[in-house]
Amino acid sequence: MSRIGTVYLVGAGPGDPDLLTLRAARLLGAAEIVVHDGLVEPAVLAMARPGAKLVSVAKSRARHTLPQEEINALLVREALAGRDVVRLKGGDPFVFGRGGEEAEACHAAGVPVEVVPGVTSALGAAAAAQIPLTHREGASIVSFVAGQCKGLTEQNWAGLAGKGRTLVIYMGVKTAPQIAEKLMADGLSPETPLAVIENAARPTMRVLRGPLAALPDLVERERVKSPALIIIGDVTARTDAAVAQFALEAHS
């Protein structure tokens, strides 16, 4: 019986190659083929073994290099041909990464799967911006939501953000006006502080802040582009306050 390869669903973290797990780095250095998302940093791809086949399956809102069903088929086909495949994803494979669908397709075809978790983008972005997603005096509940999904306007987001809560929105740049409108319609104050983090854990990272009501204008004025996350809640104001206090003490 011919050998069947293994598909490794590997999280590449938010961008900085230093944030990969040791397991992820070792697999990248050994894999015969790496099937990667478009947002994976070139410095991470450079960790692949010399001669490895790199296949981009980049997705954007307007264009997919390969539909998800074809990505699933590609992984299965390569593994059944006896090759070990690293499916490299930004963040974590099982947090808005469609890793669950890929794992199911592999299992159905009899292909072994291993999931290697990564630093999900929410945690990586918050850490890079020094925004605590939870804080004893600010938030004890964190929610992750997708800002691009079917039926966005029909969903009930009441209770996801507000006092004692932090809301992290993935893929929300294009739908920022709808997100702000929805949250305010569901009862959130227009003055609720937020931060937009673009290119987290990368040299080009930006952290933009403002109130919820100004989110659409902020995104448009600053020409925010993916990858970017939106963090909504009182915790987003804590870093600014801490920096201001530190500066005050340093000059007193």
List segments where confidence is low: pLDDT < 50 over at least 5 consecutive residues.
241-252
Write down the Rg.
20 Å
Q: Give the CA-CA distance, first to last residue.
A: 76 Å
* H and E string: EHEHEHEHEHEEHEEHEH
Principal-axis shape equals elongated
CATH architecture of the largest domain: 2-Layer Sandwich
CATH topology of the largest domain: Methyltransferase, Cobalt-precorrin-4 Transmethylase, Domain 2
- The computed structural class is alpha/beta
At the fourth level of CATH, the homologous superfamily of the largest domain is: Tetrapyrrole methylase, C-terminal domain
Number of strands: 10
The fraction of residues in strands falls at 15-25%
- The CATH class label of the largest domain is Alpha Beta
Strand order of the largest sheet: 3-2-4-1-5
Indicate the mean pLDDT.
89
This entry's quaternary arrangement is: single chain
Domain Tetrapyrrole methylase: 6-215
Pathway: Porphyrin-containing compound metabolism; siroheme biosynthesis; precorrin-2 from uroporphyrinogen III: step 1/1
Family: Belongs to the precorrin methyltransferase family.
InterPro entries: 4pyrrol_Mease, 4pyrrol_Methylase_sf, 4pyrrole_Mease_sub1, 4pyrrole_Mease_sub2, CobA/CysG_C, Siro_Cobalamin_biosynth, Uropor_MeTrfase_CS
